[in-house]
Amino acid sequence: MPPLSLSGLHETLALLTSQLRPDANHKEDMVFLRDVFSEKSLAYLMKIHEKLRQYERQSPTPVLHSASTLAEDVAEELQIGPMSVEEKELLQLLTSPHMRAVLSVHDTVAQKNFDPVLPPLPDDFDDELEEESVKIVRLVKNKEPLGATIRRDEATGAVIVARIMRGGAADRSGLVHVGDELREVNGVAVAHKRPDEISQLLSQSQGSITLKIIPAIKEEDRIKESRVSGWFIVALFDYNPGEDKATPCQEAGLPFQRGDVLQVVSQDDPTWWQAKRVADGNLRAGLIPSKHFQERSCGAGLRRSFRLSRKDRQGSSGEAPDSGDPEFLTYEEVSRYQQRPSERPRLVVLIGSLGARINELKQKVIAENPYRYAVAVPHTTRPRKSHEKEGVEYHFVTKQAFDTDAQNNKFIEHGEYKENQYGTSIEAIRSIQARNKICLVDMQPEALKTLRTAEFKPFVVFVKPRIPESRRRRSAATSPGGGDHGRFTDEDLQEMRQSAQLIDLQYGHLVDRVLIKEDTASACVELRAVLERLERETFWVPISWVKS
C-alpha cells in the first residue's frame, strides 16, 4: 500500500510520534504512546477526518429530498414502451435492492437539519418561578416552520401549545408538548401579545430559537402520550388550507389533491388530523380536516344548496322533490396490495366519455393476446344469427329468463337496443377469472358501485379522447381518439368535453388511471403497459379489500 500523504491533523500526529523519546522514568508509557500513534488504523481515521472536514467546509446541500420517488418514476416511464439496451441497463440499475437502499439513505439524510450549532444557554434567565416548574428549551429551526400551534386559554389568559406537528422541529426535539404554557420567545414575553403576533414572532425566528415554557405534565408521564397512528387514506377531494377560514393555522395546513395518498400520524385532535403526503417523502406533518369535520362542514353546505335546487325545480316544473341528500366525499382508508400468484386476476374496468370508443380499444388488446386477456360474454334476447355460436359472441336467452336474472341482480348492467335486451352478468366475469385470465369490461360508470368489492378488486381506467382546443388546431380533421377522418363540429367537441368533465366530477374518485386517447394504436400500447404492471406491482386499494 503506498504511504499516506501527510496534512493537517494527520501530519501533526506523525510529527508528534517522531518526537516521542522514551526515558528511564516513563519508558513504558512512551513506548505505549508511540505504538498507538503508529497504528495504521489510526492514521486512516485521521485521513478520513481530514476529508470530512474538507467536505464540510464546502457546505454541501442535497439537490432534491426525494431521490427514491424520482427513481421510481423514471423506472415506471422506462417500462411504458420498448426499451433500448441502455434503457434496460438503467432500469435494472434503478430497481436493484442496493441502489434503492442508497437512495433511501440519501433521502433520510437530505430531509434532516444539522445546522446551525446551538449556542450556550444564557446565564441571566428569569428565576421568578421554581426551578422544577420552568423549562428553557432551545431548538434548531432553519427555514422550516416550528411545527407547533398555540391558543389562548379562555380561563387564565395563558398562551398554551395547542398541537405539535409530527416531524417538525418541536416534535423532533421532544422538549415541547401539547398543553405546555409558553412564557417567552427569544427573551420576549408573550403574555400580552395577540396569537397572530406570537405566531409571527415564532415564524420569523431563524436558526436557534429559545423558549421559556411551563410544562403541562411531569416528564415521567410523557410516555403515556399517544404517538403515531400510521394509517393511510386516499383523499377524495381537493384541499387548499390557504382558502380555508376554519383552519387553526394556515401555515401548518397540508394542501392535497383528490387521489393523493396521505399517512395520518395523529388523531389527538378530533377536528384537525396530522398527516403527510406519502409521495413527498417529507418528514413533517401538516394539518388536514378530519373526516367528521369535513363531512359536517361540506355536508351542511351541500344539503342547503341541494334543498334550494330541489325547491327551484319544484317551483318551475311542479315536480315533487327528489328524496335523499347528495353524497359528499372525504377520505377512504387504503392499504398496499399486490396480486399473489394464487389469486385470481383483478378485474379491469374501462369507462369512457363520448368519442373514446373504448370497445374498439378493448377488442384490439384482447386480439393481440387472447391467451391472457378476455371479455365477459354478454347475454341477449335477440335471435342467434347463423354464424354465431352460443357462449362465444353472446349467451342467447329468452326474454323471460333475462328478466328473471335482471330482477335477481345478476347483471352488472343491462339495457335495451332495438327492442332486444343486452346485459353483462357477474357469472360471466367469474368464468373468465376462473381461467386465470384478466377480464376486460367496458361499461357505464354507474356500474362501478356494484363492482367495487373485495372479490373483483377492479382497476378502473378512464379513457377520454384528446380533444383539440380550437378549429385551427384540428385542421387535420381527424376524429378524437380514432383513426378515421370524419369532421366534428364545435358542438360535437363541446359535448365531448362536457361528457368527460361530468364523468370526472361524479366518478373521478373511483378511477385508478386516466388514459388520454390520441389514436387507437398508441392507446392500445399504453393500456397494455398498464395491464402488465397490474400483475407485478403494488397498488393502493380500499383496506376492506385486503382485510381477512
Automatic annotation (TrEMBL):
Repressor recorded as keyword: no
Domain of life of the native organism: Eukaryota
Coiled-coil region: none
Source organism: Denticeps clupeoides (denticle herring)
Alphabetized UniProt keyword annotations: Cell junction, Membrane, Repeat, SH3 domain
Organismal lineage: Eukaryota, Metazoa, Chordata, Craniata, Vertebrata
Keyword flag Repeat: yes
Family indicated by similarity: Belongs to the MAGUK family.
Protein's cellular compartments: Cell junction, Adherens junction; Membrane
Entries under Pfam families matching the protein: Guanylate_kin, L27, PDZ, SH3_2
GO CC annotation: adherens junction; membrane
Domain L27 intervals: 5-59, 60-117
Name the UniProt record assigns to this protein: MAGUK p55 scaffold protein 3
Gene: mpp3a
